[in-house]
What we know:
The protein is built from 7 helices and 5 strands; from the N terminus they run E-H-E-H-E-H-E-H-H-E-H-H.
Amino acid sequence: MPSCTHLPRRPVCPRCQRPAAACICAAVRPVAHQVQVLILMHPLEQHQAKGTARLLHLCLPGSRIVVGETFGDAALAQEITAPWVDGDRQAPRRAVLLYPPTPPDPQHPMLPAPPLSTDWLAAPERLRLVVLDGTWRKSRRMLWANPALQALPRLALQQVPPTRYAVRKAHAPHQLSTLEAAQCALQQLEPANPHIAALSQAMDALMALLRSRDGAARSAMLGPDLS
């Protein structure tokens, strides 16, 4: 009877959960912030080597990643508003969804999003920003599938800068990576916080890492230059 051959598993970085050869920890820039950030990651993004959500999470101490496409109402409500730390006596967080206005779609009717209160914006330390991590198509599916997300007030980005994320194709110039979009949102919600700008440094460091690894991979495929 032939024996089964098990290929050795690649070592994984315990911090960023990437294969050690694709570790992104060198790009992390810790950021002090008030608004908590809940990242709802589509399952197909979980092992995406060029995704930015994991780096965003590592940069923001007040953040959490939850993987899934469809969530139970009770579980999602807990993630959206309940304290993340046991014994936290703070009032429930006020959740805001980072998502642009969506035109009506008869095939996918949704709950109307309530307006974002100016009183909420005046207290960023009470806010929890909900960020959908996935392609536009995936994020729309997540929104359609979860009425609890539809019921949240929305934050639309203003004065969106051009993306610096050149490794995955955007469908429009204003479409940003998850990290870039979250940075813009945090800068709108915490306009007096200078630390949020460090996310740009993290993004640039990640792009440099990816370009370096892509270049090394191409060189390895081409072999040594014998000219």
